[in-house]
Every structure is written in C-alpha cells, then in structure tokens.
Amino acid sequence: MATFAARPMEPAERPAWDALWLASHRWLPQSPAVLEAACGAALAPWGVFESTRLVAALAFAREVKFGRTALRHAAPVSFQGVLTAPGIDRDEAMAAIARAVPGACARADAILGPGEVDARPFAWNGWSAAPHYNFVNRLDAPGGIEASLSPAARRQLRKARGAGLRAERGDGLGELERLRAATTARHSFADAVTWEGYQRLFALGAAAGTGVRSAVLLARSEDGAVHAGALLLADAHRTYYAMGASDPGLLGSGAPTLLHTDGSALLAAEGWPAVYDWCGANTPGVARFKEGFGPVLELLMRIEWASPAAALWRRLRA
Questions:
Q1: Angle at the Cα of 54 from the Cα atoms of 48 and 58, rounded to 5 degrees
Q2: What is the per-residue pLDDT across 114-152, written as a single tens digit (0 to 9) for each?
Q3: What are the beta bridge partners of residue 70?
Q4: Which of 124, 193, 245, 290 could lock onto 197 through a cystine, CB 3.0 to 4.6 A?
Q5: Which helix (H) or strand (E) holds 89?
Q6: Which residues, in sequence order, are bridge partners of residue 301?
Q7: What b/e sequence results for 258-280 when a residue is b if at least 16 CB atoms lie within 10 Å of its CB, and e otherwise?
Q8: 3-class DSSP state of 140
Q9: What is the rounded average pLDDT of the residues 283-302?
Q10: Are 61 and 227 contacting, i.e. CB atoms less than 8 angstroms apart?
Q11: Termini Cα distance of the chain
Q12: Are 261 and 294 in contact (CB under 8 A)?
C-alpha cells in the first residue's frame, strides 16, 4: 500500500498542481486557475504526496476570525471534489487529507463532486458528512429549459416577453455589478466570492487556452433598463450559473425567468455544454425559484470538521 502524506502546497508546486488538473477530467471547480481567481490571496491548496510526487489536491479558502482559522469550500460553484492522479487510491488520498487538515484549523468544509457520494474516508477520521443538494437542467432537451417550466414560471415568462424584455449577451460586468450590489444589500447576505473575484473569473473565461468560458447574460427592457443579469461559467462538461442578480426596483417583471429561459437558449445555440448547473438548491426561497424550471435534483456530499471548541461555539450560537 502506498504511503500518502497531506500538507499545504507551496507556490513552487503550482506547476505540478496544474499538471494534475490537465491530466484529469478537467472539472472547472478543480482548476487551479479558477480557484485562484475566485479566492485570491485566501486560496489555501492542500496536496497529497507520495514521497515528493503530488498525487491529489483539495483547495480551501482560508478565513481568519477572532484568531481562529477556518478552511472553507473554495470553488465558485456548488462542488469541487478531491482531484487525484490516474491510478491513485482515492480513499487513501481522502484519508490523508482528513487526517492532516484538522491540525491546521478550527473548522474545515468542502463539497465533493458529482458521483463522490462515498465520504467514509472523512467520516472515519472524525469529519461529518451530509447531503448537499444541487439542480441541473439539460439545454439539449426538446424545447430547452422552456419546455420544462412550471405553470407559474411559464406565466412569468409570458409576462416578461409581453412587456418587451429580451435576453442578451453583456460585454462586461459593469451593469451586473450594480445589480449584484443592490441584491446583496436587499437580502443582507455576504457573498463567498468578492466582486474582484468575479472580475477575475470573467477575465479568465474570456482568455484563450484556459479550459474555461465565461459570459454575462442580461434581461433588458425596451427602454434600456436592465432588470436582471447573471455570470455564467463553463468547462467542457457543464454550464454553471455562477452568480445572478436582479433590480429590487423592478421586481415582478418576470425578468429572472426570461433570463434563464431565453439566455440559456442563446448559450445552447453557441455550443455551450448542455448540462445547465444551477449551483445549489439548499436555500428555501432560492430553491423554490429554481424548481420552477423543472430541474433534476443532484445529490452531492458536504464534508465538515470542527474542533470541540468550534463545535461548542456553533451550538451556542444556534
């Protein structure tokens, strides 16, 4: 049996990490460039080594509060998973990470990738594992997303089209920035990705040879007002709804429904990947909106470790 050891990666080991991803299935949320763009200086990649050879990786976003370090899910979408070299025992690689990470933080969490439902190497080393839900649609289904709309969502789409709204490609993040700021203020939530991170992700997708695509979609009315917008990312396998926003002063126009229905049709016509990943289905209000598009529920696994002190603090705050 191979002997694996996990530890934080050094900057000089980035080429080995890149090579590991290039030899893999090339999921977008496992790309070192994507993770670096999303997290910036907070990126904390961990590697699993067989002697000096990098054989697996799992990156986190480092967060320090009240003198305590937390290692958070780093990907800008719903999952990441453990990136492993071909032929490597995944269970042994995951167990090496599970044993090593708790010594460096008070809390840690990550979301495994599609099909990675066996989280026992983490559970057997003191981590918890729980379902994490996601939605996906098929853009290549007959009629696209529009064909699977619920009656309520179909009414919203008719309302938006009747008012003259249209979906279009944006040429940058400028109009989306205003919408996103208004949305976060209205709902009082802290985004896991900074605006600078979204800018880096958009630029990465616009560059050649990265294995990543990016696009901004806008729902605009005839008078030029932007009602809703979204940032989409893609790898060779999926189109990811990475971030969205709508104008709080223009609610009820049906724009978000039109944005996804007609906007996804634009991307499908351009040859974007047919799996439309909604990037989460775990918040009740957001999940209800996404359910209107008739998606398929995808089960992912979220792993978490907390020191006894951190676990107690969490219980006291609950």
A1: 45
A2: 999 999 999 999 999 999 999 999 999 999 999 999 999
A3: 63, 107
A4: 193
A5: none
A6: 131
A7: bbbbbbbbebbeeebbbbbbbbb
A8: coil
A9: 95
A10: no
A11: 43
A12: no
